[in-house]
Amino acid sequence: MMDQFLKGQMSVLSGFPPSVGRDVAVAVVKPLAAGLGNPSTPSLLRTDRQVKWTMEVLYYGLTLQSDTDTVKLCVDIYTDWMMTLVSQKSSTPPPISRDPNLYVQRILRHLYILFLPRSGQVSPVYLSLCQQVLSSTQSLARESSMMSSETWQTLLHFLLRINHNLLAPPTPAGGLSDLSVAVLLEVWLLACS
User: Among residues of the chain, what percentage have pLDDT more than 90?
Assistant: First the structure.
């Protein structure tokens, strides 16, 4: 059964053979990630349609094995774009800059897939990606002065859902559960203030 937080979330790439989806994801995320380190680099994405299509690709990329560079680049791109609610950069696509709350809500729904149970052992790469997302959401809650009430609700729902997954047996190693609970409690307090 699909998790309610993911309701309606699916990438068009899911209908293609896995090798096609992976190749498309790699081809899309590499040039996007290359511009992240340089805030003066203009975004490759200019329209709402381009951003939405790219987000479908990023969503698919997050479903790949967590040890791949593609998943890391998807996390890097999304955590960078989320911070548009804190400060604007020219490397952020203009549609996200114009309506950051709407896009951050979508990004959080997509990032949730990273925290769903995965087959096999929990790797250090997987743990670091989850920690990166948790740290970014914590920074977003601490530093943003323009989050809408809907974005606060989505952020809290996101943290509640990932804590539900992380605290269910078997829990992952590396203190990820402790960090996720700490972030949830801090964000909850910030949302109340």
Answer: 62
What rounded mean pLDDT belongs to the chain? 88
For the segment 98-105, the average pLDDT, to the nearest whole number, is 97
Please, which pLDDT band fits residue 16 given cuts at 50, 70 and 90? confident
Domain locations in the chain as residue ranges: 4-192
* CA 183 – CA 185 distance, rounded (Å): 6
- Classify 4-192 by CATH class: mainly alpha
CB 186 within 8 A of CB 140: no
3-state SS, one letter per residue, for the chain: CCCHHHCCCCCHHHHCCHHHHHHHHHHHHHHHHHCCCCCCCCCCCCCHHHHHHHHHHHHHHHCCCCCCHHHHHHHHHHHHHHHHHCCCCCCCCHHHHHCHHHHHHHHHHHHHHHHCCCCCCCCHHHHHHHHHHHHHHHHHHHHCCCCCHHHHHHHHHHHHHHHHHHHCCCCCCCCHHHHHHHHHHHHHHHHHC
